[in-house]
């Protein structure tokens, strides 16, 4: 990683912090001898992050080395049955005679043998969003867009070129949704296409499935059985509210597209299907849909491919599983998964007899890979004070301390320490959060306190974040509280039930109680405090601003302000109405939880931040908040990003975000002069 002067950490200089390499995913070869990671680095101009593939020594002895390098980068590594490494990349077509329009605005699929150059395997007009490889067969499935009426990739390309040549960009919707996070939907929709790999293992024969018959699917949720004969995909189907949708699980014949089973239940969503080693079953996440009265819930189910019968694998597990991995050994029904738990996200093992064992006690884990003998696991480990990094651990054994593997992007020095804060809610429910305290903070020199509210609201402060990282603030001398209030994950279903339908109620009370408990610590200066949050955390920042004047400054990033207008404008309006009801017939929750009607109670100076490409919380929420505060003569600034979405992702914008938020708190919490960041 970049170096810093003696006595300083990477967090004392934002450009150094943001230039740190970022490990994002892992792939293990079929024989277990190779481990490959996708790693993001700044480009030469410092204006974008570009991903490359790195070889990591599974034994942890050799230094990592880079495998790929291009202007557009490489991502999503995966190994084929013969050990060939596949990846997605936007790099240029290597065939001089090929139509460059095939690569328009998207990634293509490439294969890289252990020795030799990368070869392009599949092109698709508009790009490929995800893919899967058969563990033992010569098949691949990929997800890509098809225009309505296009039966295959060629027909889609021809119709797309017609639209482009005619300068037509219009979309005619007959049902919603119409947007997703930061982009418009349609007219093309994602479909699964299956191809057979040729004998060389690196070129693909024509698609053998009429992809159009499979229906529009979730962008990257496609799996192949080990022999490549079956494909499992997650399909969007109409929900039970206007313009809403849910997901069904489809198992189809990979050669013909014939649907063998469809798991389609009004009260369930399905995600992350993984086939067993023998291909006779698959394991997936099953979500119990939320209602006005009850929060959603999550479990793991095993689905028999022959009958379609479902078996709940975690009937007594009280947290939500994710990151599912199955044993590669035929006949072994062991499953590994991760789940948020008390400010961590451990790896759990579910044995065939139903026994569930927690394998790790600290940190948060993702991208779990299982060795071919099912005796060893590889994963990315992260923590509030640890960047994502590959580790190795035994596939069995409780509360292990995994062995770190050598990889890019290490950060060893931090400007403070991490501890936990505990208290109780008004109902006696145990509450906790993380507290980062700067070095030197004491009763004689107490640190000012910032409170960061996470988004979701179903989420938890349990892992590293590049966007809401506490350590640049700690380096500036602030203590940072990261609380998990009601509706947070990792505390059992009761944590959701106790805050359901009252976004600004019990979660607010929990936040105040955790803030009170923190402010009582001798190393904390309770007279100098600020609060910030993004998404739901931005909503809570607005709610706090209308409810108390205890904070000196508040930052609202991508926050909800007027819930009634929000429900009609967000890309997920159907989801919001399931929780809050139809405002025409069920206005109570909107009236009780919306901050906007209480704007005249705001006394705290605010910084409002929003991106114009945010369709989850549309920018109109920030515009209204900004104008309402000005009308009420509340000191306010508005940091606006015309080309950012729900998150601020571009490197220079991320640095500007940190500079602006830090300078705002320096002004309002510490009483320093306002310093306007450069270039704005």
UniProtKB/TrEMBL annotation:
One of its GO terms (biological process) is proteolysis. One of its GO terms (molecular function) is serine-type endopeptidase activity. SUPFAM superfamilies: alpha/beta-Hydrolases, DPP6 N-terminal domain-like. It comes from Streptomyces candidus. Gene3D superfamilies: alpha/beta hydrolase (3.40.50.1820), TolB, C-terminal domain (2.120.10.30). Keywords: Aminopeptidase, Hydrolase, Protease, Signal. InterPro entries: 6-blade_b-propeller_TolB-like, AB_hydrolase_fold, Peptidase_S9_cat. This is Dipeptidyl aminopeptidase/acylaminoacyl peptidase. Residues 464-668 form the Peptidase S9 prolyl oligopeptidase catalytic domain. The lineage of its organism: Bacteria, Bacillati, Actinomycetota, Actinomycetes, Kitasatosporales.
